[in-house]
Amino acid sequence: MNDPSFSAILGLGFLLGLRHALDADHLAAVSTVLAERPSLRASSAVGFWWGIGHTITLLIVGAVVLALNIHIPEEFELIAESGVGLLLIILGVNLAVKLYRDRWHVHAHTHDNSAHVHFHSHRRQEDHRHQHWLSASVRPLCIGMAHGLAGSAALMLMILASTQDVGAGLLSIVIFGLGSIVGMMTIGITISLPLVCSFSMSRRLFAGLQGIAGAVSVGVGIWMLVTQALAASGYHPS
Fold first, then answer.
1. 238, part of any domain
2. Is 237 part of any domain?
């Protein structure tokens, strides 16, 4: 545990966790969730709970692999990655359905003998309420756990290459998880900035960014499914 080389590995693990948060599927999932909650406070919370869920799954898988000295089969990775692809498609479609139900539209009325035009949604006005922190946290937590399952195979290969000790391996996972939490919270705030600004400036612009987030999520999900299908068939592009 006091080996300088192991300390260097832990530092590298934290940096890899930061980098891991930048993966396309992570960005697509978090962007889709944040597009429904244009708030800087919500963005940091979403990133935090995503990272917690991601780390919990990695710790569970890591404990089993290290304690029982088993290897994760390639089929498991294919199924997990495909599951994340389906999840991204569901998130994107769900956002599109909510956009349709919100029915943002132009509404003209007269006030003080002056005509005004507003772009708004009756549904949002009728259903406006603050979400409880628990219900708002469960969704990113579950999404993070799904992503952790999909990324567990690659991480365990890296850890097993450096140590077979259960305690050291779990510590490496925790450090990696901390890096992913910090990275995802930072990314969440960054993604939320244009959403928050657009929400206050123009509802039409905000709806457009929501549509882009949903389309990107569906696109990345389809790309992941196609990639895994090709891998399962044994196709390897040159």
1. no
2. no
* E-only strand ranges, 88-137: 105-111, 114-120
For residue 220, what are the domain limits? 4-232
Residue among 52, 45, 54 at smallest CA distance from 26? 54
How far is 215 from 93, CA to CA, in rounded Å? Answer: 8
pLDDT tens digits, 195-214: 888 887 877 888 888 889 99
Q: How far apart are CA 158 and CA 143, in angstroms?
A: 23
Number of domains in the chain: 1
Q: By C-alpha distance, which of 83, 84, 53, 58 is closest to 72?
A: 58
Instruction: Map 4-56 to HEC letters.
Output: HHHHHHHHHHHHHHHHHCCCHHHHHHHHHHHCCCCCHHHHHHHHHHHHHHHHH
In a domain, 131, yes or no: yes
For 55-64, the pLDDT digits (tens) are 999 999 989 8
CA–CA separation, 111 and 128 (whole Å)? 24
Instruction: Output the pTM of the full model.
Output: 0.79
Other C-beta atoms lying within 10 Å of the C-beta of residue 165: 14
